[in-house]
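User: Here's a chain of 335 residues. Predict its fold as tokens.
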Amino acid sequence: MKAAPARPDAPSGLARLPYAGRPGAATAAGLLFASLALFPLLAHMLGDPFLLVIATRVMIFGLAAMSLDLILGYGALVSFGHAAFIGIGAYAVAILAAHGIDELLIQALVAIAASSLFALATGAISLRTRGVYFIMITLAFGQMAYFFMVSLSAYGGDDGISLAARSTLFGSDVLENDLALFYAVFLCLALAFLGLRAVVASRFGRVLRGTRDNRTRMEAIGFAPFAYQLIAYVIAGGLAGLAGVFLANQAEFVAPAFMSWQRSGELIVMVVLGGMGTLVGPIVGSIAFLLLEDWLARFSEHWRLGLGIVLVLLALFTRGGISGLVARLTGGAPR
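Assistant: Prediction complete.
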């Protein structure tokens, strides 16, 4: 396959490197995951177990944001319905639990299958549009899923549904322990990161990025971008569904608000804040967003005003989000 055309803002030769070969990318990922793995020790030393709950939530949204980055950062597909996949995954847990199926592995398989099928059906339609029309149609599908769950009174309707207990793992209630849930989420996040890194560094990923940069040229050299984008959309939907499984277990509650368009907007902000097209960036963005949310909310209920100011400053004075800023400060590659 021919190499994708170099982006105007990319250093000479950098655009031709696969993600895994970019200077500093592996180091940044290693430092990030080592910090996350050791975080429970820090929480124990500080004597604040609630930090573990926050860190678990951060990793769940990091997983969801990373899945969105596959289509947004590598495919330039701005989806305002991505939270629907999280909601489908969360409701898979709640509905199965309501019928006596508490095993995490079964719930996760059902959640991934359901969210992937929803992504396949909606993606096959949405990807026939481009630009603002793609944004609007994904928003419409997301809202359809939202109002469907609102009308489903058997499972709580607008009020949502509480879980009697967290899921079991091989019949054990080990996930009732916050530390066990933390490392279960950490393991899935790490595996998803490695899997997505292999995907974006593969021929499939190069075609996806090539389509992002110049769709017409990719079609001219014989590729069918629609199939590549649809597969990426389905992968992203399945991973977001897995994030929903853990979100339901972490909150022990599921509501239609999990799949609202505002939640989709927050996921986009996390990706942009951390840095699009980097995989590490969405995780960093989820950390920054949720910590800013927690910190600013202590001062005012209008914390989104402060968050907006931070985002404006980042947009004006950084390029490539937090990951890009750190890379430039340390003399590394901006992406």
